Amino acid sequence: MKTFSLLLLFVCSFSSVFAQYDNVQPVEIGVDFDAKLGELKPIWAFWGYDEPNYTYMKDGKKLLTEISELSKVPVYVRAHSLLVTGDGEAALKWGSTNAYTEDENGNPIYDWTIIDKIFDTYIERGMKPLAQIGFMPEALSTKPQPYRHHWKPGAEYGDIYTGWAYPPNDYSKWAELVYQWVLHSVARYGKEEVESWYWELWNEPNIGYWRGTTEEYIKLYDYTADAVKRALPTAKMGGPETTGPGWDKAEAFLRTFLDHIISGKNYATGETGAPLDFITYHAKGSPKLVDGHIQMNMGSQLNDLAKGFEVVASYPTLKDLPIIIGESDPEGCAACSEEDYPENAYRNGTMYSSYTAASFARKYDLARAYGVNLKGAVTWGFEFEDQAWYAGFRDMATNGVDKPVLNVFRMFGMMHDTQVAVTGDLEYDYKKVRSKSVRENPDVNSLASVGEDGASVMVFNYHDRDDLEVAASPVTINLKNIPAQKVLVNQYRVDQEFSNSYSLYKEMGSPENPTPEQIKALEQAGQLQLFTSPVWMPVTDGNLELSLDLPRQGVALFQLEFEK
């Protein structure tokens, strides 16, 4: 009897917990194509990664080609370690170009071979550098030894902050290096091309990536910005690429930097202030394991975004500058694999893709609410060459096979140019997600846009928990003021069955070394797929109703082609 009572108590408790998350309710979404909100800027067309030498390797070039092809606009790419000393060997959280060394008399030797190889790879694909000026060459570091690190997943993260992270022993030599780099870029690619790039200084200087003081970073910025502008006065220069301003020390660093930009004494010129053409900082979520299951925290990422927007908006002379979120992700370490960091197991499947759809929709909302100019949000997730299949790195592809998350970016690339309002009795808005994340009912919502000849409606069904085997959510989308008599409707889908190489990989038994035939099948499964065949639908008085059952962590895109 006692055993039965305990079992009954367990079942009741489990049912109560499950019911808390399994509240599947029909959702109605309204989209009014006359309720225009302004340009739907391609803020998603920005990527970045730690390991610059992956750029021109086999799978790196393949992925960059795919990323460039999914976008109607040029994609910007940000990579670390472009000035780091070394032989160009690729490793986790490491890269080098050997751009700067010195002879025995301390005279500079410039070698742009590897940097050119990296930037050529971008330019050949119609992409553009978000050129990160860093890190410190060995010959210029105030503490050059040890210089090269050999970090592996599971090791202390702080082990990476070696000689490359220190201030220069000669600011004039550093400035000349930057000046020569920009001059070389103009000579190789042309003035008009380089004018379209973004140049920025360093990465996360408020933590271990910069082993100097805040004031030393500001000094480095002054010398760097002056060198960039002397080489190309029309170049776009920005910073400071701090960690998320939701952290008090990061906010303080950002404010100190912006104060200096406006009224500080310039270390390089002696004048007041320093040039600043765009502002950069990071925004990260914070997943963790709860009862053995992953629980995401989108609220943390949105809080970083919002705090940074608030800071920028408080400076009247700076608030209209473009903002580029230099890293905007569900968490911090792309190279931290699932094996050593089990909370990162979300990365292979649809939790990452649905999180991406939901978080980008809220980035637009937040920027509009704070009245700031959000230019881009860098996804810090590329690929890791010659690693185990689906090892749980934060990447877009594994061994050349696309993961589900990349198909959400393919959806973004198909969106139209003008954002329109989404209405309805919806569970979440950006305010609630920022304050509470998605802890109760699912976040079923939409991002919609319209153009002259068609429209796009992306619908997502996101939740912070990964362990929920629940029914799909019935969703009705009421479209209003469609400027057409008839529309051709294409529905694309990313879920467990569609546009999902990882599901197929698991069905194969998770082979350690897939056969060529299996790889071909995985590559096909990794592409964006139609859910059904396209269908013509009549429009009545400008109205049309669409419906679908959207699985948890699923994303759907309705592409409408107008016939007037």
Automatic annotation (TrEMBL):
GO biological processes: carbohydrate metabolic process
InterPro entries reported in the protein's UniProt record: GH (IPR017853), GH39_cat (IPR049166), Glyco_hydro_39 (IPR000514), Glycosyl_Hydrolase_39 (IPR051923)
Protein keywords: Glycosidase, Hydrolase, Signal
Keyword Membrane: no
Domain of life: Bacteria
Residues annotated as domain Glycosyl hydrolases family 39 N-terminal catalytic: 29-525
Official protein name in the record: Xylan 1,4-beta-xylosidase
UniProt family annotation: Belongs to the glycosyl hydrolase 39 family.
One Gene Ontology molecular-function label: hydrolase activity, hydrolyzing O-glycosyl compounds
Leader peptide range in chain numbering: 1-19
Catalytic site positions: 204
